[in-house]
Design brief:
Helix content: 25-40%
Largest sheet: 7 strands, mixed
Number of domains: 2
Radius of gyration: 19 Å
Structural class: alpha/beta
Distance between the termini: 48 Å
Number of helices: 8
CATH topology of the largest domain: Rossmann fold
CATH class of the largest domain: Alpha Beta
Number of strands: 14
Strand content: 25-35%
Length: 307
């Protein structure tokens, strides 16, 4: 399939926060394989001479399928970026180019290396080697065109909360599963029934491949395409949603439909400025807020449904 690369090159005093917020807009619009370029990025020790060059400016890149929805989705994306740019005082420009999926998949691999994202969990790209320590739980991942290499703070925060809250045998649901990394983490931590939902058909396929790559058999998991938790039946001990603030707030309205009494809801993708908004909404909806964690301006929250 042909994809259109949408690239937002920007300038802002707080480039890290601006990049995360632009990436959040991309994710909200269903753009896959979001890449953040940082000119201050330090090369790793064995950076190859022919690796992708260090970027010259801050930018965020996402990919749109080149189908009949393209023009409408481009207009929607540009309007959303314009609104956010006005709020942030962001200087930016938008550019597009056509790429093949394979070209994209190869071009960014030089930037993805093994990384410890939890107390025990290490994310390893499928094409890298890693010498695991005795206590490491290694997740092998190939994000393909799906959002989710596992290295973003929101994913790391979610994984740490899953490590803390999930008990062996617990059922687990991941809403907006992307590359399936949270499902794999839960499976390797001993979860029983695993379910995931994503609105993107390609993400569902890639999540299935990543679960299989990590030795999690098809009899243990179920994946569905759809919006939020709509296509999911049954209730779960732990539900995770690493999405965005406004989607988390929307999800809180009926997340109890898929949570067992006393179950745990883990949410992230929340910028620090919105922490109190989400905590307040959870409390008002009869959640006991158990844990709030911050990392690099992002927040993850774990709450228990009161029995």
């Amino acid at each position: 399939m042909k994809y259109i690369e949408a690239k937002i090159t920007f300038d802002h005093p707080d480039a890290g926060l601006a990049g995360d917020l632009v990436a959040g807009v991309f994710f909200d619009f269903g753009l896959q394989g979001v890449v953040v370029e940082d000119p201050g990025m330090e090369p790793v020790e064995d950076w190859a001479e022919d690796a992708v060059a260090r970027p010259s400016a801050h930018a965020v890149i996402g990919y749109l399928p080149g189908d009949d929805r393209l023009n409408r989705r481009r207009a929607q994306l540009e309007n959303a970026i314009a609104r956010m740019g006005n709020q942030l005082g962001l200087l930016y420009r938008v550019s597009y180019r056509q790429v093949d999926e394979q070209d994209w998949a190869e071009s960014w691999k030089a930037f993805f290396w093994p990384q410890k994202i939890g107390e025990r969990i290490v994310v390893k790209p499928s094409w890298r080697d890693y010498d695991a320590r005795p206590d490491d739980i290694v997740i092998e991942i190939d994000p393909g065109m799906a959002f989710g290499t596992g290295t973003h703070p929101t994913t790391s925060l979610c994984v740490r909360l899953i490590e803390n809250e999930l008990k062996p045998g617990d059922s687990f649901l991941d809403i907006g599963t992307g590359s399936g990394i949270l499902m794999v983490a839960a499976g390797k931590l001993g979860a029983g029934r695993l379910c995931g939902v994503d609105r993107d058909e390609l993400a569902v396929r890639i999540a299935s491949e990543n679960l299989g790559r990590n030795g999690i058999g098809a009899d243990r998991f179920h994946l569905a395409q759809g919006s939020l938790a709509a296509p999911i039946k049954g209730r779960f001990d732990v539900v995770a949603a690493n999405i965005l603030t406004h989607v988390v707030l929307e999800l809180l309205v009926d997340v109890s439909r898929v949570l067992k009494p006393g179950g745990i809801f883990i949410c992230s993708g929340i910028i620090e400025e919105n922490k109190n908004l989400v905590v307040g909404r959870m409390t008002a909806m009869d959640f006991e807020v158990k844990d709030v964690r911050l990392q690099e301006g992002w927040v993850a929250i774990a709450g228990r449904v009161r029995p």
